[in-house]
Every structure is written in C-alpha cells, then in structure tokens.
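The material for today's practical consists of a large collection of protein records. Getting from the letters to the tokens is the skill we practise here. To make this concrete, we reproduce a full record directly below:
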Amino acid sequence: MTTTDIRKNLNSILKAIQENRILEAFEKYYHNDIIIYEKGVNRVGKQENRTFEQGLASHTIVSDLKVLTLLVDENCSAYECIITFSTDQDTNITKSHYWSFQKWDQGLIVKEEILNI
C-alpha cells in the first residue's frame, strides 16, 4: 500500500467522522486484531473496539471536525484535529483537541493511539 493510498483512506475516515458515519469507516478500515490506546485504556480486537465505537456513535453528534495536521510516512499516519460535538444527554457543545496516530497493514489500521491535548 502506498502513502497515497493511506492518505486517501485516512481522508475517507475523517470525512466519515465529519458526517457521523464512524461505524461505517470502522468496519471498512480497521483490522480484526486492532489495538486502540486511549486515555490509558487498551482496547484489543475489533469486537471490543466496535462495542466502544457503537456506544460513542449512539450518543454523540459531530458538528465539526477541523484537521490541523495530517501526516503519512510509509505505513504510519497521524493527524491533529479539533472535533466539535454534542451528546444526546447534554446539549452543550464540546470541543476536543487531539492527535491520533495509526499504523497500517495491507490497507487496514492495526494500531491506533489517541492523545487528547
């Protein structure tokens, strides 16, 4: 897989997040053995991560995603963004600034780490 392919796939994921279609992107671009690290928690495997993403998607409405930086080098990618969202339990608008780092294998993300800033 080329860096151009990875960049294209990553842009598709980001567009899906902007359009509240994260589950669709998750199914398409995340490996069955995905490991995601976030806030000191390791989620291992597609099923565990799917359950987490389903819970998030069912309660969160993204209103904006601004990508500040996007990097791709060989089989690694990273992006910095500010996401604006609300939840069905709280109508207040929340902004979150974070970096996300991915390792790719055969067109799928096998490892991801998310760091809130």
